[in-house]
């Protein structure tokens, strides 16, 4: 049976004879149903269309970005980080083809896949099976797994160390289990998905409950996230849409949290 994919959010559902009646990811207030209505595809259909490919770019000695072109669904960027002992894929994209598989095989494979939040679960079960990689999802977001793979690992608490270099940290905010990845490389690197979103002005970031529907987070949540972020050491931050904050990324994220709080308190501007 085919595993149907929602073309608006890119989430792949468990195999079924017919497409699901609804996409529960899109019908939730942090996402949206396409204005043309719910539509479905399969990974085979995407491959056979000949339209899509994954653009893989080396952005540093050990980091590669992966983005599907032309844009499919949300259009997020995933990151492949080559570790000393563990090769990590941070977040994922829906599209997977032979060319993509060959690239990762040439790089030594993928050992672990860590996901920031449910909007990027996409077709991760396919990726997990293809590369025999364990998938790490915070248990607070387990209810959003609509196509559970055999290698899915639910983690709990505030952090999970995957290796000497890679640690996951639960920040909450965008989702209850929303997480970021910290890489102990150079002066420290954070991969934030859009749990921490990079602004058009790369000196600032923001934090939202819903980006497409523009629902902000409350002040107490931002204060808690700021406190958790302040414990980390990092100089660079990569988000899910090819945006980078560097140098002094930590200082800029903390200043951004303060500005967000001032704005909600009515202290930042007078209009």
UniProtKB/TrEMBL annotation:
Pfam families assigned to the protein according to its UniProt record, in alphabetical order: Lactamase_B (PF00753)
Ranges of residues in domain Metallo-beta-lactamase: 75-241
Entry's transmembrane regions: none
Name of the featured protein: Metallo-beta-lactamase domain-containing protein
Originating species: Planococcus lenghuensis
Higher taxonomy: Bacteria, Bacillati, Bacillota, Bacilli, Bacillales
């Amino acid at each position: 049976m085919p595993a149907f994919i929602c073309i608006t959010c890119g989430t792949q559902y468990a195999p079924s004879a017919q497409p699901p009646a609804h996409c529960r990811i899109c019908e939730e207030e942090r996402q949206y149903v396409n204005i043309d209505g719910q539509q479905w595809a399969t990974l085979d259909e995407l491959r056979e269309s000949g339209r899509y490919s994954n653009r893989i770019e080396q952005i540093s000695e050990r980091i590669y970005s992966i983005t599907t072109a032309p844009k499919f669904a949300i259009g997020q960027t995933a990151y492949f980080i080559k570790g000393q002992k563990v090769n990590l894929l941070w977040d994922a994209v829906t599209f997977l083809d032979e060319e993509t598989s060959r690239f990762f095989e040439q790089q030594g494979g993928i050992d672990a896949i860590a996901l920031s939040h449910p909007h990027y679960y996409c077709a991760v079960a396919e990726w997990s099976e293809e590369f025999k990689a364990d998938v790490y999802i915070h248990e607070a977001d387990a209810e959003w797994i609509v196509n559970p793979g055999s290698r899915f690992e639910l983690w709990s608490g505030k952090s999970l160390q995957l290796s000497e270099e890679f640690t996951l940290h639960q920040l909450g905010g965008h989702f209850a289990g929303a997480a970021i990845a910290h890489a102990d490389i150079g002066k420290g690197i954070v991969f934030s998905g859009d749990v921490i979103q990079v602004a058009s002005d790369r000196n600032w970031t923001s934090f939202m409950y819903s980006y497409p529907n523009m629902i902000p987070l409350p002040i107490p949540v931002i204060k808690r996230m700021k406190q958790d972020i302040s414990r980390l050491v990092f100089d660079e931050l990569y988000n899910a849409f090819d945006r980078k904050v560097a140098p002094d990324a930590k200082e800029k994220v903390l200043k951004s949290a303060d500005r967000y709080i001032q704005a909600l308190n009515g202290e930042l501007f007078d209009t």
